[in-house]
Amino acid sequence: MAQIPAGGGAPAYLTYLIPLVVIGIVILRNSRERRIRIERLWIAPAIIMLMTIVAFSANPPPGPVGLGLDLAAVCVGGLLGWWRARASTFTIDPATHVITSKVSPWGMLLILGIFALRYVLRSVMAGGAASAMHVTAAELTDSFLLLAVGVVSAQRIEWLIRARKLLAEARAA
Predict the structure, then answer these.
(1) What's the CA gap between 46 and 149, in Å, rounded?
(2) Which of these, 155, 148, 163, 161, lies nearest to 52 by C-alpha position?
(3) CA 39, CA 22: separation in Å to the nearest integer?
(4) Dist CA 131 CA 133 (whole Å)
(5) How many whole angstroms separate alpha carbon 112 and alpha carbon 125?
(6) Overall average pLDDT of the 69-76 stretch
(7) Angstrom distance (rounded) from CA 63 to CA 136
């Protein structure tokens, strides 16, 4: 049985094990085709934006470097989300017009890469780089939230565009 350290925190291996389990679940879930419901594509971006707004409201406004970092995170997240959506394969049943998608292995590797980048940056920033860059830990975590907002939002927008095009072509045929 795992023992809880004297400080009362979780054992060190849990900080790596839990994200790996989550990544495994995401990969298994994304490795099979899933039905795309156009009318529900807005839900995930809305939820993550709401969570981000709540998280931002608990922190003081970021400084100029933090704002730049936030802007860069949204832009990079948007590009990664668009790329991940473009790496998805869409199919449509001509009779029922049911649209399904399957994320490519490259799209799943992108998620692994984002998690790995987060852990690398967390280690680097814990070593004093955050103060040298004149950003706070809150600003860094806010930037990662904005990266996620960019990924999810851009992916869903691209999916919406592609799904509507497929549906229009199927209805015209």
Answers:
(1) 9
(2) 148
(3) 27
(4) 5
(5) 20
(6) 93
(7) 9
* C-alpha R_g of the chain: 19
| Residue 84 CB burial class (10 angstroms; 0-12, 13-18, ≥19) | buried
Res. 86: pLDDT tops 70? yes
C-alpha to C-alpha distance for 139 and 72, rounded to whole angstroms: 12
Tokens of 56: 């931002």
Residues with Cβ within 8 Å of residue 30, at least 6 apart in sequence: 102, 103, 107, 108
For the record, the structure tokens of 118 come out as: 């987060």
Angle at 25 between CA 22 and CA 28, to 5 degrees: 150
- Bridge partners for 103 per DSSP: 88
pLDDT on residue 106: 77
Across 13-27, 72-86, 116-130, which has the greatest mean pLDDT? Answer: 72-86
Task: Output 146 or 137, whichever has higher pLDDT.
Answer: 146
- What is the average pLDDT value for the chain, to the nearest integer? 81
Residue 52 tokens, joined: 């981000």
Q: What is residue 62's DSSP assignment?
A: P
The secondary structure of residue 40, as a DSSP letter, is G
